[in-house]
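Pasting as-is:
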Amino acid sequence: MPKNAVNDTISKKDTIVVKKETLDDVLRTKADDQRRDIPKKMTFLNKNAQVKYQDMQIDADYISIDDNKNLIYARGKQDSLGKIIEPVITTQAGKKYETNEFSYNTKTKQAIAFNARTEESEGVIIAQKTKKYNDSVFAMRKADYTTDDYFIKKKDTAADYFMRAYNIKLIKTKAKSQIVTGPIQMFIEQVPTPLYLPFAILPFSDKRAAGILIPSFGEREDVGFFLNGIGYYQPIGEHFDLKVLADIYTKGSWNLRPQVNYQKKYRYSGNFTADIGTMVRGIKGLDDYTKNSTYRINWTHSQDSKANPFLTFSASVDIVSTKFYNNPLNNNYIFNQNVLNTQQNSTVTLTKRFLKLPATITGTASYSQNFATGLADLRLPQMNVAINQFYLFKSRTGIRQGLLENITVNTGFNLTNFVNTQENELFKKEMWDKMQTGLKNNIALATNTTVAKYFTFSLSANIDNALTTKTLNRYYDPVKNVTVDEINKNFTGYSTFSTSASLQTTLFGMMKFKKGSAVEAVRHMMTPSVSFTYSPDFSSPNFGYYKNYYNATGALTPYSIFEKGIIGSPSSGMQGALGFNIGNNIEMKVKSKSDSTGVKKIKIFESLNLSGSYNFAANDHPWSVFSINGQSSFFNNKLTVNTSLALEPYKIDFSSGQDTGVRTEQFGHFSVQGFNVQLSYPLSSEIFGEKTDYAKKYSSKGEVRNENYYFDDDHYAHFDQAWTLNISANYAYSKGLSRFANKIASIGLDGSLKLTPFWNITGSTHYDMVTKELAYTRIGFSRDQRSFTINFNWVPFGQYKVYDFFIGIKANILSDALKYKDRSFTQPNAPF
């Protein structure tokens, strides 16, 4: 080819490589002052600056855009000293963020913000530095979190509380959002508190979420300083959740309390709790050192009535160690007075009803503990078959008349397995050996009719049939000088019956006073009734229910072979008793200016009953003890008085010098065997004054923090300072056949006082007038803040001296994560 020939072949590749754009969308900008530095590839926006990119919008006083670094920087408006007075507002995906400074990388989609204010659901986070890794993950440094609604809505420049963590991660998904923190501390009114959590998981969702449970803290004299109720909450599926709580004491005691709640709508609900711990008192190595283990197992289950009307199951199981309430580690048992418990009962019940059969079958298992004796009663199983009441004869006219047509029959069967045993014998051979089984059938017939228009005549008969597997053989052993009770294992039973007849009427009387008298009339209603009861002597040898043995003195002594059995013993001695009861109701009409009718009724005695009986068949002491019971109320039914009096009609002889007397045959020497009176009177601020209409009385209304007040012309604040005070008194006198009487007398106070609209004081105390000492006393304070509630409870003296302090967050989103412990002394409007 010639040298000067032109080479028309293109040597380079014909593919053109285009550099990828750094922006995925158009970057739109506007401002009062815009400047472009082309060499540096920088854009500067001043005054009312705005950038829109994809779903993000940035509004600020100053914005710079660096095309080389793919970086957008924004800063809020400054004052003359360089302080930010208007924030940068960034809006993305419908969420608004406020910051002092903000930078965003359009390539990596990462952002960094300073003093960012992030609102999520009911809370707000203000972080010194926030880094956005992507649309789902935000990392924050030295961040404060609060749910104070006033602060969120900018009604106040300071939150009433916040929780501060130096490292926070905000995780956002389509389903829910939550923040996860390291160590976190609570601040109240900008003041740090000793409330620390090792970590926290705070959800932003209406669904249940796991989280740390905030404890209460305080001091108890016997076990030291404590954290009470620190733990973790974990929802399990749709129908279950789990709480694990712990109580920790500085003197070595500890307590663990797992709790499981479950619920299936329209079917059933219940909860299971355990309380396991070790109580340490004193100093190890010294004489006063003690270490005891305690436990409590509680299960409650209830079935919705709509689930199955023909088969229902319920359970209320509460089993504790014998000295559980003598060594309570959970302070709530002190505050709610459970430490005074002497009995604990547990029951599981299954009930079967039928659509066509007139019967109900109930199966029960029960367990009862007596802490005073250390014994427990176990009934397992117990079954009752109840036949619905029915009439023995049909009515000829459709309206039942006369004795025959009104005869009703009630009957049923009851099967019981019962044992009274020590706690350490449960389900062991010793317990099974003492187990008793009994079957009982009762048939009750009753009828009534009207006699001579004004009298009601009633007849009844009662038949008992019983069967048991154990009977008693008693004899005196002269060698050991003891009475021996020998239990025979064999089937045997008895049948008993009794009848009664009664006649009752109602009488009215009226006593009117002179016209113009303060008392217009006294009305008396009397309901007298007499009854006669008959039952044969079942201790007669003809029945075979009673036997005789010679005691230590050689006297022939009768006893029932069913005496120690579960079905009870037939009555001994013939019963042919005439009983009486006189019921009274006495009211008085007095003049009253406050009543629209000009007359007011005052109840002198709502009820006043006198009862007793005379047994014609008795060989001695035919008269019973006379009983008088009364109930009345005064001062517009505010003061309630209940009284009872037992009168012994026979003379009690103490001539032998014994402390226990002998009942003689000398009738007419009436002595007080027992007397009891109980009074209760509720006082309140409403009783002592008319309720003030503050809106009409005072000219202006204002707010101090979150408390509303009414202000008079001199700018003094007023509000309804409500208070309540319940006064109760009890006096009991019991003597019986003893030479010396036993007396109990006490006065109790229980009340509350509002110091301010959101400050409340509650307390209760009892004074024993016999020992002249204060009994159980509790003082409680509660403060309802804007976004949390403070509760303080104190038992100042007694066996358990303790104070307890608790703070509960009210925000709904924290109802699981920072669970609020509802107490009896909290405000009624507390949300948890």
